């Protein structure tokens, strides 16, 4: 297992947004977290990646206790996250976005750009090209990010995550706003990356598209884990019920 949580909990003024959630993410898999709106999925991701402090429980990454490490330390351990809404630098080109460092979210745009132009390493550029080619967006290399479609922005986000060499890529709704054909392309790329040694933990609502690609599925409802298993879990009565009740 690359990631394990043990009774992870997070409370907001009495609301149990995350209530003793224990999950295991196998290496080189696509593990999916689903559940109706407000069931705690984003809170889970935020707590695992250090954006929220846990109120209870433990997070282990690659066998190491990383509970309540700050986000940059978790990043250094090899876990990177993408956000519900992609945040590229719109006026910059795709390749410039690829070369933007991710490790220091607090760094100013100006500082980041200067650092990049000064520190440009040819192998970083080469790596960025290779990744863009793998993702089939190399034709967009010199386009400004603002001209990309929703799906292309998601691919750019995956590209940026791949630039970091993170072992585990955590994604919040990577298919939101993506046309179905491109969504399938994205998922096929993700599966190829799993075969190549990466691990993905994904929160997603579009089950019709993503379920077939999932190796393992966790279902949340009201801050708790209500089911886990293979793709067939969505047929369990308790899962149907939590979706109907939402
Ligand atoms: N920063 C916060 N402060 C207070 N309450 C919060 C905060 N973040 C989340 N919550 C609450 O925690 C609960 C779980 O929210 P969360 O966003 O984790 O659900 P979700 O499953 O990701 O929903 P969605 O699918 O709509 O994104 C909700 O009741 C939400 O209102």
From TrEMBL:
<dbReference type="InterPro" id="IPR003593">
    <property type="entry name" value="AAA+_ATPase"/>
</dbReference>
<dbReference type="InterPro" id="IPR017871">
    <property type="entry name" value="ABC_transporter-like_CS"/>
</dbReference>
<keyword id="KW-0067">ATP-binding</keyword>
<dbReference type="InterPro" id="IPR027417">
    <property type="entry name" value="P-loop_NTPase"/>
</dbReference>
<keyword id="KW-0813">Transport</keyword>
<dbReference type="InterPro" id="IPR003439">
    <property type="entry name" value="ABC_transporter-like_ATP-bd"/>
</dbReference>
<protein>
    <submittedName>
        <fullName>ABC transporter ATP-binding protein</fullName>
    </submittedName>
</protein>
<keyword id="KW-0547">Nucleotide-binding</keyword>
<dbReference type="Pfam" id="PF00005">
    <property type="entry name" value="ABC_tran"/>
</dbReference>
<dbReference type="InterPro" id="IPR051120">
    <property type="entry name" value="ABC_AA/LPS_Transport"/>
</dbReference>
<feature type="domain" description="ABC transporter">
    <location>
        <begin position="3"/>
        <end position="246"/>
    </location>
</feature>
<dbReference type="GO" id="GO:0005524">
    <property type="term" value="F:ATP binding"/>
</dbReference>
